[in-house]
Amino acid sequence: MRKALFAGVIILLSACNQQTEKKFLQIPDLEQQNLKGKIRQVVTENYAADSTGKIGAMDTCCNSVEEYDDNGYSSKYITKDAKGNIKTEQSFTHNDVGLFTGMTTMTGNKKTSSLTVEFDVSTL
After folding, report:
1. I need a labelling partner for 68 at 20 to 30 A (CA). Which of 33, 77, 91, 118 fits?
2. 85-117 exposure pattern, b = at least 16 Cβ within 10 A, e = fewer
3. What's the pTM value of the predicted model, to 2 decimals?
4. What is the pLDDT of residues 67-83, one digit of tens each?
5. What distance in Å separates the CA atoms of residue 27 and residue 4, rounded to the nearest whole number?
6. Is 15 within the bounds of a domain?
7. Does 36 map to a domain?
8. Which range marks the domain in which residue 95 is found?
9. Residues whose CB falls within 8 Å of the CB of residue 28, separated by 6 or more in sequence, listed in order
10. Which residues of 50-76 are buried (b: 16+ CB within 10 A; e: fewer)?
């Protein structure tokens, strides 16, 4: 009984002494959206529909273009009106492992906001 208990304690102590490597897995935006292939951009246009389902005029809300970088991360998001004029443009940056590091929003060629994210790499 003592030998079994002693062996159990040794196994427990050696298991607790193992160093674990911290790894952060960042899944690219294209993969999260279940898009396959070398996609560079996704264009979304919304149209009004009448009661019979017939497509009418383009909706002025929610028309957008989302662009992706070579690693599959979103790099730019542009909203447009029904005439194709840009309303807002957001640019995104990511670090080498794909973590979001910043964003800049432009409205009418004027910077309206920005955000920068810094990480403590020892916690990743």
Report:
1. 118
2. eeeebbbbbbeeebebeebbebeeeeeeeeeee
3. 0.72
4. 999 999 999 999 988 78
5. 45
6. no
7. yes
8. 28-123
9. 71, 72, 73, 98
10. eeeeeeeebeeeebebbbbbeebbbbe
